[in-house]
Design a protein that fits this description.
Length: about 290
């Protein structure tokens, strides 16, 4: 019973981080209609920005999260202008953008490797210590903060998409890009905003997870795969489906790691995804093209 309760709690914490990561994939796919495979590398970049700010420069750890979001958001927006914008609309752009994003991710990972070396880095904890709930659960303050920060950011994202002018523009472009363009929506500016927000969310996920585990240049690969699993499982372009899927995947990984060992976690996730796609090819909340985001 104790293992089950502890695994459930850990799974919820993992799920909150996966939700941030997968939200980046979902926003980009919903608006631009391609999977940005560079987000795994941006996850890593966010962790290293926070490590520089908090670990090397000695500033507050919370500033590391803010700096990671801002810096990586600028990288995301810049990558759209420099790499993806020239491709969009050309024949075969839906394939070339995916390949370009994969190449961009490889470049970013190797720049990090050259600049920081291959050794593991450790980001200072935002909060140290913890407490026990009877004999069933051991809670660390860092985990509680991770869960709280993730949920607050996701709530703010929901308000942004439904209440703000830019959020409504993103939803309009996602539903019908040509119609949005005809009524005067600055489509390419919206695309750049989407790329910036998705990169920033991914960076925050990188900071939160790297504060618990170690940080190295290759950590983004596994996280990128998990983000893809969550995004596809939830239904491409479905924000609500992504949120549900993130916590399901987080719980599943935690249970598998607890009872079978961590080495079985990723294979189990892929096996689960395959089984789901056989039954529901569009994911648990797959939407029609015009209804996405």
């Amino acid at each position: 019973m104790q293992n089950l309760v502890q695994a459930t709690y850990s799974g919820l914490v993992l799920g909150s981080i996966y939700a941030l990561m997968a939200m980046g994939f979902t926003l980009v796919y919903g608006a631009l209609r391609f999977l940005n495979l560079a987000l795994g590398a941006l996850f890593t970049l966010g962790g290293y920005v926070a490590w520089l700010v908090a670990g090397q420069w000695g500033l507050a750890a919370m500033l590391g999260i803010v700096a990671a979001f801002v810096v990586v958001a600028f990288v995301g927006a810049g990558s759209y202008q420099a790499v993806f914008r020239p491709m969009i609309g050309r024949p075969g752009w839906d394939i070339t953008t995916i390949i370009a994003s994969l190449g961009l991710g490889i470049v970013i990972e190797n720049v990090i490797l050259i600049g920081f070396g291959p050794r593991n880095k450790s980001i200072p904890l935002l909060l140290e210590g913890g407490f026990r709930v009877g004999d069933l659960l051991r809670v660390q303050y860092q985990q509680l903060l991770t869960l709280a920060v993730s949920l607050v950011i996701l709530l703010l994202m929901g308000l942004f998409l439904t209440r703000s002018r830019h959020g409504l523009a993103i939803r309009a472009v996602a539903q019908n890009r040509d119609a949005a363009y005809l009524v005067g929506t600055p489509v390419h500016r919206v695309f750049a905003i989407v790329m910036a927000i998705s990169a920033g969310l991914t960076a925050v996920a990188g900071v939160l997870l790297s504060a618990v585990f170690f940080l190295n240049p290759g950590v983004g690969l596994a996280m990128g795969l998990r983000g893809l699993i969550v995004t596809i499982f939830g239904g491409l372009g479905s924000i609500v489906g992504t949120l549900y899927a993130a916590f399901v995947i987080g719980l599943l990984e935690s249970y598998v790691s607890m009872y079978l060992g961590a080495r079985w976690a990723l294979p189990a996730l892929f096996a689960f995804l395959i089984a789901v796609l056989i039954v529901r090819p569009g994911g648990i909340a797959g939407l029609a093209e015009e209804a996405r985001v």
